[in-house]
Design goal:
By secondary structure, the chain is an alpha/beta fold. It contains 14 helices and twelve strands. The protein has three domains: 58 residues, lambda repressor-like DNA-binding domains (434 Repressor (Amino-terminal Domain)); 125 residues, Response regulator (Rossmann fold); 149 residues, Rossmann fold (3-Layer(aba) Sandwich). Strand 1, helix 5 and strand 2 form a beta-alpha-beta unit. Helix 1 crosses helix 3, helix 2 crosses helix 4 and helix 5 crosses helix 12. It starts with 6 loop residues before the first helix and ends with a helix. It comes from Ktedonospora formicarum. Keywords: DNA-binding, Transcription, Transcription regulation.
Length: 368
């Protein structure tokens, strides 16, 4: 019987409104002390366990935050979710995870989530084809934040890294080691980050006075097999045509390069230096260990959740004020317009992690 009690039942037994019960459950300090004690006594006497959704609906503001994310098998997603989980534990919110695959854009899933009003806001992680749909929903006033590197940022609040500058740093590191013949394995060209990383690589070469050689740019797909294919193609050339260094646009492809090099007996970094991008958990364990650009995935998750929670709280507070205002509709429009104009784009710094896959060119090492 106890499990079947509702917030409405508790309100009736305590002689208060549903909204008061909800505020007590949400630890709202505005509730009168005597009323709070009365509600808490009834809750304790009946061993009442509230539904997170019901608490929110009674107050017009759910305590659930939705997270749209690719499968947890994606290399960076577990780290991002760790940051999300760490931050949400510090709040009064709970999280519901929606896993989205790549076979369709899932706009119907998103519409159902919003129609049911289960969540107060959404964090979208690498949303792919959903980006335009999410942007539309945000511009309609729904709290949304994205962690993404696939599409060019829109009006959506966005958390990520500066891919151009990071790739420039990786290439500059190779130049400073003495490499002048540096190849690049790109990610898929429909990914915004792949283009930015290529541009950072090209920019560093240009600043060093080196003309980019198109024969040293390879096309990949961000998966290990494309790294293997690139390596086979590269190492099948005459050795005199090899670059002395290869900057790979992500660690997954770099793993494929290292795998082929090991199979062919090619010494890294003695015969060719390899640098990746991401610093996935496995990168410190490869043979040799991979020099790479470290993306702070866990910090990105924390920062994105903090941004979203702040947005939700402001949205709820401003929305309640607007509903009691004689010009409520205009106030809401102004709020949404201001939200669009000030949507944050938060870039978290990366850093280069130097391991054993990189070194000076063989010609220089011989002379040392």
């Amino acid at each position: 019987m106890h499990n079947k009690l509702t917030i409405q039942d508790i309100a009736r037994l305590a002689g208060v409104s549903k909204a008061t019960v909800s505020r007590v459950l949400n630890h709202n300090p505005s509730v009168n002390g005597l009323l709070r004690e009365r509600v808490q006594r009834v809750i304790k006497e009946h061993n009442f366990i509230p539904s997170v959704i019901a608490v929110g609906l009674a107050d017009g503001h759910t305590r659930l935050i939705g997270v749209l994310a690719p499968p947890l098998t994606w290399p960076s997603v577990p780290e991002i979710m760790q940051g999300v989980a760490e931050y949400i534990e510090q709040t009064h919110y709970e999280m519901v995870l929606y896993s989205i695959g790549l076979e369709r854009n899932h706009s119907d899933v998103l519409d159902n989530i919003l129609r049911l009003k289960i969540v107060s806001g959404l964090l979208a992680i690498f949303p792919g084809e959903l980006m335009s749909h999410l942007t539309y929903r945000f511009e309609q006033g729904f709290p949304l934040v994205t962690i993404d590197d696939q599409a060019e940022p829109t009006s959506l609040p966005w958390v990520g890294v500066d891919n151009h500058t990071s790739a420039y740093q990786a290439t500059r590191y190779l130049l400073d080691l003495g490499h002048t013949r540096i190849a690049h394995l790109m990610g898929p060209q429909h990914y915004y980050c792949a283009i930015e990383r290529y541009q950072g690589y090209a920019h560093a070469l240009r600043d060093a006075g080196i003309i980019l050689d198109p024969a040293l740019v390879f096309q990949g797909t961000f998966v290990p097999d494309s790294g293997r294919q690139c390596a086979i193609q590269l190492f099948s050339r005459e050795k005199s045509d090899w670059p002395t260094a290869l900057f790979v646009a992500n660690d997954q492809m770099a793993y494929g390069v290292l795998d082929v090099a090991e199979q062919l007996g090619i010494q890294i970094p003695e015969e060719i230096t390899v640098v990746g991008f991401d610093d996935n958990n496995f990168s410190a364990l490869t043979r040799p260990s991979l020099t790479t650009i470290r993306q702070p995935f866990s910090q990105m998750g924390r920062q994105a959740l903090e941004t979203l929670v702040t947005m939700i709280d402001q949205h709820h507070h401003t929305g309640k004020e607007a509903l009691n205002h004689p010009e409520a509709e205009e106030t809401q429009k102004s709020m949404h317009s201001e939200q669009e104009d000030t949507s944050p784009r938060i870039q978290i710094p990366t850093h280069l992690v130097v391991r054993t896959s990189s070194g000076v060119p063989r010609t220089l090492s011989i002379g040392l």
